[in-house]
Amino acid sequence: MLTGKNYVGNKLSANGDVVFTTLNPKLNIKNSVHFTEASDDEINEAVKIADIAFDEFKGKSNLERAKFLNAIADEILALDSELIDVYMSETGLPEGRAIGERGRTIGQLRNFAALLEEGSWVDARIDTAIPDREPIPKADLRKMNVAIGPIVVFGASNFPLAYSTAGGDTASALAAGCPVIVKVHPMHAGTSELVGSAIVKAAEKTGMPNGVFSNLNSKGIELGRKLVSHPKIKGVGFTGSIKGGRALYNLAAARPEPIPVFAEMGSINPVVILPEYLANNASSIGKTYAGSITLGAGQFCTNPGLILCVNGDKLNEFLTVLSSEIEQAAPQCMLHPLIKTNFLNANVMMQQQKGVEVIASYGDSVDANYASQVVARVSGDEFLNNPNLHHEVFGPYSLVVVCDDAEQMEEILRGLEGQLTGTILGEVNEISRFSGVVSTLQNRVGRVIFNGVPTGVEVCPSMLHGGPYPASTDSRFTAVGTDSIKRWVRPLSFQNWPNEMLPKELKNENPLNIIRKVDNLDTKNSIS
Ligand code: NAP
Fold first, then answer.
1. Ligand 1: does its nearest atom lie under 6 Å from the Cβ of 244?
2. Active site residue 403
3. pLDDT in tens, 313-354
4. What confidence tens digit (pLDDT) does each residue in 286-299 have?
5. Which residues is 146 bridged to in the sheet?
6. Are 177 and 146 in contact (CB under 8 A)?
7. Has this prediction a pTM greater than 0.85?
8. How far apart are the CA of 263 and the centre of ligand 1, in A?
9. Where along the chain do its domains lie?
10. Residue in 178, 301, 309, 403 annotated catalytic
11. Domain 6-265+476-487 classified CATH 3.40.605.10?
């Protein structure tokens, strides 16, 4: 049952004065539970016990941490319909989505558990000594990844389970051996508390130190700023707006000891339709893309917000089908009135831009907090001259840019900010004629999709969910998939350490049987 309290480590606590509620956007009424924002004392206590827990937690074996992650997954499942009901009451998202997202959350936790059980993720490298090397002997050097310390996670409003309290950032940080303090997203505080209770239970059952996890309620940005500024915090995971992510990035960089902020801030995900493909598939692209634009009320960071095509014969057929599908699709509830207001304001801003013409819209007769989907068009010339048109409209919106030719398309892509994804819709035989477009697109994005849609992010090791700024603050890392663990580790090199004092991962006999690079060769062999 929900209490509205914070988890400061394993203890429920509510000493603060600021109280808030969540909102049921479908019914447009406040939910009944009152959540208490964490006080300064509670913030400091959560950081203090996270810092104390760090040494013990990072010293737990891979198998012990894997047990912890699997136990979190089990405890989340045990919450059963209570979690699904609270999730739906705080987000307006349907039951199928809630169950699907829970499955994804559990899958991510179990993926990280499997990664730990296998063990090679630490990327062990060993260069053995050459005592008789001339002119000077070579030392024995061994390197592996180690956890960086307590992490603050800012959950995403649009993924209350999979990218929030026990989502990708938390799962990857705990897997790495970093304690986590979650700054609760105020729109789904109840979901967060329930998931937090599952993590606390799992920590107790598997013998993890108190402080390995805290869940702090907050309404407003101050609590998050205090956490990021705290000297004992060593890293930040964030999913949300560019404004919020950039503010936290600047704050972290201005600390006496700067720390990394891995912020995934979304993008407009350009889709390029090449002429021959358009001619052959005009109608089906229109249908498929109407579905992608409206999926989940467009509240995905991979929503296709920009569609580039060249003026030609079948353009009208594509636009007619896209428009008719957009006009017929049932409007969906958005996550929160604030998200809806942002959506409406961004729509108005776009419509005020020179040359932008709305070609399809559901219309204004939608219930409170529901989004009326919109597709607009503009010429390549206008787009090139107006950076306002690059802005993300978070929701079911897409802008079709009709270019004069491939050169203009390429110029537009070259001028775009960094993106999470880029999509090419093309016939295989026409790709070579558009190599400049393809190459320019690849330079701007983290994932390039061929003949598909950008929505739908597979969770697997080869997924890259990130991209050049501002899609993310560091294009070398992913927020999805097991490689996301790399955000929370740093390499530590051991020089000439006695074998018995080395971590198991680096010992001569390779007791964990992991893959290591020994004298430049990948091997599981022991070192004689
Ligand atoms: P947000 O406003 O960026 O907030 C995300 C989290 O960061 C919240 O917990 C928020 O705290 C905190 N935060 C925001 N600005 C901060 C600052 N300057 N300092 C410290 N903490 C800060 O995102 P949101 O609430 O999820 O949605 C708002 C808008 O963000 C949407 O309308 C949309 O435009 C965009 N968005 C984009 C994506 C994407 O993937 N592209 C995803 C989600 C949202 P409080 O809420 O407590 O203030």
1. yes
2. no
3. 899 999 999 999 999 999 999 999 999 999 999 999 999 999
4. 999 999 999 999 99
5. 490
6. yes
7. yes
8. 11
9. 6-265+476-487, 270-450
10. 301
11. yes
